[in-house]
Amino acid sequence: MKPYKHLLFRQSFINGKWTKESDKNFDVVNPSTDKKIISVYDNSEKSIKKAIDAAYLSMPKWKALAAKDRSTILLKWFDLIHANKEAIATIMTLESGKPYQESLGEINYGAAFIQWFAEEAKRMYGDIIPGFSADKRIAVIRQPIGVVGAITPWNFPLAMITRKIAPALAAGCSVVVRPSELTPLTALAINKLAHDAGFPNGVINTVVGLDASKMGLALCESDKVAKISFTGSTRVGQILSAQSAQTLKKLSLELGGNAPMIIFEDADIDAAIKGTIAGKFRFSGQTCVCVNRILVHENIYETFVKKFTSAVKDLVIGDGFAKNTQIGPVINQKAIEKAQFFVKDAVSKGGKIKTGGKIRKGLFFEPTVIADATEDMNFAQEEIFGPIAPIFKFSTDQEAIDMANNTIFGLASYFYSKDINRIIKVSEALEYGIVGVNEGLISSEVVPFGGVKYSGTGREGSKYGIEDYTELKYICVGGVQ
Q1: Rounded Cα gap, residues 278 and 440, in angstroms
Q2: pTM for this one?
Q3: DSSP structural state of residue 27
Q4: Which CATH architecture has domain 5-255+455-475?
Q5: Which first-to-last residue range defines the signal peptide (predicted)?
């Protein structure tokens, strides 16, 4: 285990200072061992309001900086994260159970958003529009939207923060981050590094506390907060949307998923298995773009199930710091109970467990393959968020498309095929914000990430990602002679 205690903090970071409301605290626990890592001070909506005030007061000077100067500070933050990535990865693995190599990968991925938007800060272009009369000159410019509230989940404790606040900061906004109480330590560590990079006091604030609902409500009801960016469940996204209605906030919502992986008859089966395992079992299946349903053509079904099951049996389960670990624990007991429910429901409706299906000591759930899955099973419509891979059978392309689209969600989707006509047709027919063709890992800072239907609104990453943190202003100059 790498040295990490120099980046281990217990208090929230507000207006450039470590802050606590009282001596009330809660334990952050390692899901691999069920042992306490550290006790963190529990803050409430009172601290959120202090952070909002700090962000609001700091923003005028921050947005007034030249884009190049904001870019320079962002790049210093990027460098500091990389200089401390082993310590951050250790903290991340301790609090999430994520395999250490996955934690390092997340740091590279999450820091890339800081680097990307440091450059985009200098490219926040507007337009010159021909005047509608000879004495008019028209310009359109982009300006920062205002204070941004970022509410982030436990499964990517660094990347979900940087993907939201890097574009906000680049645009000239100040931010208040409310990380998950399950994984607050990574958030506090990177906020300390941001302070060291030179962000002015109040520009980045991180508030940790147990009462998520009241803290979220304080962000939504504040007239000083212009935008909320949230990653989490569809149910909570709907609540935040309703709570933000009175203040007419702009919202970016990255919500639930039910990702299909379609394996067509002409697919390279070995490549498809490799891609499906990558897309299904990353962080024990606890990501919003994880493969939720595997749809396989009937002519290759038995071959795929046999080879896929064999590959899943080879996955190594263990503590995140063990050298060869590929599957760590799930996040808590609720996740174990949810996995048990899905397996029991599937078996009761005719599903066959090909491997896995059992709990190992503590919060470890075996990677599970369920064959003969049907659309009346609960995981056909619900997000699994665990290491369970149900395999469905289809006969025609249209049946596969209809099965894939038969969900309220529309975040990520995947399929394998060699036929260019099929690739074009299916890519266009899938009702999802993201389509991976012959690829199981699709996330990058250079692409627009987001969904349709009940998977949310807005896009994060890419050149489009900064747009949601700005407002367009039209300027008309008259009387030109």
Answers
A1: 6
A2: 0.96
A3: E
A4: 3-Layer(aba) Sandwich (3.40)
A5: none
